[in-house]
Amino acid sequence: MSEIEQKIREIQEKAREEIQNAGGLDRLTDIRVSYLGKKGILTSVMKSMKDVLPEERPTVGKWVNDARKEIETLMDATKASLEEAALEKKLAEERIDVTMPAKKIRIGHRHPNTLVRDEVERIFIGMGYEVVEGPEIEYDEYNFTKLNIPANHPAKDEQDTFYITDDILLRTQTSPVQARIMEQGKLPIRMIAPGRVFRSDEVDATHSPSFYQIEGLVIDKHITMADLKGTLDVFAKELFGPETKTKFRPHHFPFTEPSAEVDVSCFKCGGKGCRFCKGSGWIEILGCGMVHPHVLEMCGLDPEEYGGFAFGVGLERITLLKYEIDDMRLLYENDVRFIDQFS
Ligand code: DAH
Fold first, then answer.
1. Which atom of ligand 1 is nearest to the CA of 197?
2. Which residues contact 92 (CB under 8 A, 6 or more apart)?
3. Any idea what DSSP says for residue 214?
4. Cα–Cα distance list, 295 to 42, 105, 142, 181 (Å)
5. How confident is residue 185, by pLDDT bands cut at 50, 70 and 90?
6. CB distance 338 to 327 below 8 Å
7. For ligand 1, atom 7: residue with the closest CA
8. Which end of the chain is more exposed for a tag (fewer CB within 10 A), N or C?
9. Are 245 and 265 in contact (CB under 8 A)?
10. What is d(CA 32, CA 256) in angstroms, rounded to the nearest whole number?
């Protein structure tokens, strides 16, 4: 046997062995490249044909071609059987037992806080208000300055406010939305802005570093404190029942003048005094007032021409009252045994 014939046989033998032991499709592709590819072993034999005597070339050429054909046939067969094995494996793994009992689908429901927010929105939409949103990451300018809160105000302390930079912070109240909407200058304004606020507070039964407020703002010509009182009285009656009375107590907020806190008659005892209202017959629910002229000016409105009222409600506070929940943490822990009571 000539040297070249010997060589071709050896290549063929080795290829057979490698193909049989390939074990996987990736390896098979590598083998194909290593024998039949442009730089493959068999291809290089074909290229060395120029060293073979011209009269022997047809014979040698046939050997190489036969070897090539054999390797290809073997490869195709092996590929087909490997593919079939892979498919079998996949089918076995993905087999579905259609007789198995199905997983029970739990249908979710709205969180008590969401129920109250939706209710508050419904009440104000009914009075012609628009629901708007503002950013949770806010400028100091909007959260404080434009709301007439001076630089030395305790609320600006780092103990109360999460600062991101010197002039960017996590809003501590939804009141900055007032400033943003007034600045847009589309009058009159009748809006509420529900949203998340942040304060550097420790978690306990009545505090959390993140909670929700609903801001309200009305701006127009000839708005009086009577409009504020009437509006919040309707709100309280809708939310807590038609028997509910409201009481305005003088208070101070930098962005309103005059300012008030609003109490509602205790919806548990009707005002006689009970454990729920700590014997007073009244429960505090929100802060409000007539928008301060400085705020109007800083937000681009003429206080001689326009005025209005604002209010801010703590959403959790209302939720806790309405559902008689005595610990705010229950609202955030999302224990389904608790949450499911509100479905
Ligand atoms: N922003 C106040 C707070 O977080 C709540 C508030 C009070 C909002 C009076 C108002 C308002 O719009 O008029 O305590």
1. 4
2. none
3. E
4. 87, 52, 10, 12
5. very high
6. no
7. 287
8. N
9. yes
10. 82
Who's near 136: CB < 8 A, 6+ residues apart? 170, 171, 195, 196, 197, 198
The 3 state secondary structure assigned to 39-65 is CCHHHHHHHHHHHCCHHHHHHHHHHHH
Q: Hey, how many other C-beta atoms are within 10 angstroms of the C-beta on 129?
A: 19
Q: Is 251 exposed, middle or buried, given 0-12, 13-18 or 19+ CB atoms closer than 10 A?
A: middle
The label of the residue with tokens 């919040």 reads 232
pTM of the model: 0.72
CA distances 251 to 258, 260, 282, Å, are: 8, 5, 16
**C-alpha 215, offset from chain centre:** 22
Hey, which of 173, 182, 290 would you mutate to test ligand 1's pocket, going by the most ligand atoms within 8 Å of its Cβ?
A: 173
Range picked from 91-105, 135-149, 263-277 for highest mean pLDDT: 135-149
Q: Which two tokens stand for residue 259?
A: 């300012």
Task: Look at residue 314 in the predicted model and tell me its pLDDT.
Answer: 96
Sequence-separated (6 or more) residues with CB below 8 Å from residue 49: 57, 60, 61
Q: What is the per-residue burial (b if ≥16 Cβ within 10 Å, else e) of 183-207?
A: eeeeeebbbbbbbebbbeeeeeeee
pLDDT tens-digit profile of 238-269? 999 999 999 999 999 999 999 999 999 998 88
Sign of CA dihedral 227, 224, 284, 265: negative
Residue nearest to atom 4 of ligand 1 (CA): 173
Per-residue confidence (pLDDT) for residue 36, from 0 to 100: 87
Which residue type occupies 37? G
Q: How far is CA 105 from CA 26, 68, 100, 246, in A?
A: 42, 59, 15, 44
CA 175 – ligand 1 centroid, Å: 6
Using CA atoms, how far apart are residues 330 and 78, in angstroms rounded to an integer? 63
Tokens 């087909």, located at residue: 80
Q: Are 287 and 261 in contact (CB under 8 A)?
A: yes
